[in-house]
Known about the structure:
Rossmann fold, 315 residues, 7-stranded parallel beta sheet, binds 2-keto-D-gluconic acid
Amino acid sequence: MTKPDILQIGPYPEWDQVPLEQNFHMHRYFEAADKAAFLAEVGPGIRGIATRGELGANAAIIEACPRLEVISVYGVGFDAVDLAACRARGIRVTNTPDVLTNDVADLGVAMMLVQSRGMIGAETWVKDGSWGAKGLYPLKRRVWGRRAGVLGLGRIGFEVAKRLAGFDMEIAYSDVAAKEYAPDWEFIADPVALAARSDFLFVTLAASAATRHIVGQTVIEALGPEGMLINISRASNIDEDALLNALETGKLGSAALDVFEGEPNLNPRFLSLSNVLLQPHHASGTIETRKAMGKLVRDNLTAHFAGEALLTPVL
Ligand code: 8YV
């Protein structure tokens, strides 16, 4: 049987690349110097796309592949896939939910702890001799017992809140409706009201056109000069200019961010701030989770081309 032709949008670890190559004819879009010429050459034969959450597949790529049947996303977020184009042509889309939930929640909570307790600066204090020369490290803010807000109580938000409960935090959340699976946590529909009563605000929303800039100037300023914003979802959920303005002027206390507009080329204004913790979009980045994500990407492609039900379809 001939191997189905798959357009690969970004690199994968070797442990995924090898089995992908065994079962499919992979075409490495990300290695092509002239992407348009590459698409014009291989696009007509492409039946599947393998991509990553943050890379997705845009309308131009989809259009260049007239025989495209399925897009398999390595990531839970599929906001970078042009779903309207897929719907119009009956193209199936899969993602990798569940397998990454706990690691993403872990990183969000770790970011809160590291930033609130000033651990990056504390390590520098040890390494650069400040401990000996200047004495004790400046005091930082506690985490346990304080007020946490979770914006988006889906799978990841729920796991974040569960972990925060272990720190005896006062937990509230916003979502489109109260969740029956969260009877112990306060539901506050309005994100501004949620931010106003929170010391820490976690953004854990699945991104879409509807959630774009849901965290804008009003939410950010409601969180306030003592508040911390933690984003482990997508940059588009936050108005980055409003965030940078608030961080620069002290209207927001601090931020811990794993995602950025235009990543990995983030706005240079972030780099000169001392009240941020910046992470390279690696909330799902453990060996265990990435292996499970890669397997799901392959299993969905294999199921599709075997005519079987997709494991984790979103379309
Ligand atoms: C990335 C993600 O896919 O799950 C998502 O939506 O954005 C991530 O898991 C990951 O960084 C691999 O590219």
